[in-house]
């Protein structure tokens, strides 16, 4: 069953669907195919950031919980070579670069509610040829399903009728302990390298070792010791190509709770919500300030079309793009 969550300025309804199973309850809205709330049995606070009304998602809450694409993260200068042609893409980051597929990327579009079951919801969208500068009419479908564990399984499928670029990412901000910040969380990411970036967060070149940097999470690291250092908004390199089966990407822990991420994607953008400032009230009952959550975005590496040695984001006509990302939740406190 779905309910009306709000109405867009142009009159289109935004729907909200809630699924549940195995002690997990997840609410998704059609705007951005966004995860609006996650609740775990025995825990009295939400595990993600979200808003109880639509209005913040149209401004300060843009991308919160959304599926961003058709190219997640950044493409430098809004330019990319594809099939011998230079693409001229929408530059929605300071008028210089493309971010998350442009100003009308999938994270800001109102998807169609395609299917619903007690433990599953599927959403779909159509991106026309030339949309945001990308060739190819693209069909994309995102399915959220709750599995035993509990595990929230996200499957993203996309096809195009022409050669194009394709990389989607789920953009939820997680906060497992309900505190004002994620300082009490520990993070483990088994990445040996990261992508150095310029001041606009555009990759500079080849990956660099994480050893000796503030991005070394090869063993669990308490985030309180990293939040006051250099800002964290970087791609950690998990693999040099996309994988068929999900592999370990990260583990986040706080106050007896843990969340593991496994994904088919070769990169993980780690972002500690540096830009947040108190505004609209969130689903936890208070506004979100700096470092209120952490985004862990499974993706192809940013700006890959401009780096031939990066994992490829090229999608051939008729080829199926398939991403699987698994979020596994455990409440250790409930078993003691």
TrEMBL record:
Its EC number is 5.1.3.3. One of its GO terms (biological process) is galactose catabolic process via UDP-galactose, Leloir pathway. GO terms for molecular function: aldose 1-epimerase activity; carbohydrate binding. CDD domains: galactose_mutarotase_like. The keyword Protein biosynthesis does not apply. SUPFAM superfamilies: Galactose mutarotase-like (SSF74650). The active site is at 171 (proton donor), 297 (proton acceptor). It is an enzyme of class 5 (isomerase). Keywords: Carbohydrate metabolism, Isomerase. Pathway: Carbohydrate metabolism; hexose metabolism. Gene3D superfamilies: 2.70.98.10. The keyword Isomerase applies. Beta-D-galactose binds at residues 73-74, 171-173, 233. It catalyses: alpha-D-glucose = beta-D-glucose. Belongs to the aldose epimerase family. PANTHER family: ALDOSE 1-EPIMERASE, ALDOSE-1-EPIMERASE. This is Aldose 1-epimerase. It comes from Paracoccus lutimaris.
